[in-house]
Design a protein that fits this description.
Shape: elongated
CATH class of the largest domain: Alpha Beta
Number of strands: 9
Helix content: 40-55%
Distance between the termini: 37 Å
CATH topology of the largest domain: Chemotaxis protein chec
Radius of gyration: 22 Å
CATH architecture of the largest domain: 3-Layer(aba) Sandwich
Strand content: 15-25%
Number of helices: 13
Order of helices and strands: HHHHHHHHHHHEEEEHHEEEEE
Length: 301
């Protein structure tokens, strides 16, 4: 996820063109990240130390990690940790940028610092983003006061979208709202120990990729059949969430509902909605959650 977010930042900053970014995304799938780049990114070695080891590799028949340990720059334990990060998407993204000579590693680091400032995240937050672990990344984008159960509900939702619909989806910061306007929605209510709602909404054809992939049908537009497929996915997500909660919490799922047209989704309480923008195949879908509250859909002329 972070490689997509950072890639968009670099494109918007004029550092990479759309064509260059698309090429990097495609080529990074073939990249095995070099240990030196990982060590510098993880602040285990300086750029100068990594360059020194890389030069020694050209004259010695030894691996990067072995030379770094011999020079006292890394321990065997650190080398093991670095080897475990060679499939990291953020690092393969950075390596492909440098392989293509689009930016130097120093330039990437400078832009990443600006990216961090724009997000308003701490260094610890950025380390969690770099990890590629959805369980660690997604909560960073949720409001601090988000209920733990609601947080888990949203986690199950986004991870399911990643697994079943778009592995390269990315998210933006969620926000609290009393209401949100939309064109088309699908939602389901959960009853039991705590009332909860989960909805997908989106402008124009934003929900089309979800409907087509999950419904296994090439929908041409977001109509009632397409929304039915989105509702079935929400039902699947809520089923997994309810299973995770059992036996600690009693949760029953009501039949999902959906409608096309212009609507206002509102909460029973002020700022009762948590709205998380999720970009699926480039389309913004709002994942709307209410916990110990309700979502009311009202048609708008």
């Amino acid at each position: 996820m972070i490689h997509i977010l950072f890639g968009n930042f670099l494109k918007n900053a004029g550092k990479l063109s759309a064509e260059q970014l698309s090429h990097v995304y495609e080529e990074q799938k073939k990249v095995r990240v070099k240990l030196g780049l990982i060590a510098v990114s993880e602040k285990m070695m300086s750029l100068e130390q990594a360059d020194e080891v890389n030069k020694l590799q050209s004259t010695l028949d030894k691996r990067f990690g072995d030379i770094a340990v011999e020079r006292g720059y890394l321990t065997d334990e650190q080398v093991g940790r670095l080897l475990g990060k060679q499939g990291n998407l953020y690092l393969s993204f950075v390596q492909e940028i440098t392989n293509e000579n689009l930016m130097t590693l120093e330039e990437v680091e400078e832009e990443f610092a600006k990216f961090q400032k724009e997000l308003g995240f701490t260094q610890s937050d950025m380390d969690l983003l770099k990890s590629g672990d959805a369980d660690l990344m997604i909560p960073l984008f949720l409001p601090l006061e988000t209920d733990e159960l609601q947080k888990n509900h949203i986690l199950v939702c986004v991870k399911t979208l990643m697994r079943l619909i778009d592995n390269d989806l990315y998210i933006d910061k969620a926000y609290r709202a009393s209401s949100t306007d939309t064109v088309n929605y699908a939602l389901q209510e959960l009853k039991g120990d705590g009332e909860a709602f989960l909805a997908f909404s989106g402008e124009a054809d934003a929900l089309l990729p979800i409907a087509s992939k999950f419904g296994e049908e090439d929908f041409k537009k977001v109509d009632l059949d397409a929304l039915d497929a989105c509702a079935e996915l929400i039902n699947c997500i809520n089923g997994m969430f309810a299973s995770d909660c059992a036996p600690k919490f009693n949760i029953d799922m009501l039949p999902p509902v959906y409608a096309e047209g212009k609507f206002e989704l509102s909460a029973g309480k002020i700022d009762g909605l948590c709205v998380l923008p999720v970009y699926v195949k480039g389309n913004r879908v709002n994942v709307v959650s209410a916990f110990r509250d309700k979502i009311i859909a009202k048609g708008v002329n």
